[in-house]
Amino acid sequence: MAASYDRASEIKAFDETKLGVKGLVDSGITKIPQFFIQPPVQSSPKSLPAEIPVIDLTGVKSDVALRSEVVKQVKSASEIFGFFQVVNHGIPLEMLEEMLEGVRRFHEAEVEIKKKYYTRDVSKKVVYNSNFDLYEGPAANWRDTMLVNMAPQPPKLNELPVACRDVTFKYTTYIKELGATLFELLSEGLGLKSNHLTEIECDKGLNVLSHYYPPCPEPHLTVGTTKRSDPDFLTMLLQDGIGGLQVFYENYWVEVPPLSGALVVNIGDLLQIISNDKFKSVEHRVLANGSRPRVSVACFFITNRNPAYNRLYGPIKELTTDESPPLYKETTVRDFLNYYDSKGLAGTSVLDHFRL
Question: Which keywords fit this entry according to its UniProt record (predicted)?
Answer without folding.
Answer: Iron, Metal-binding, Oxidoreductase
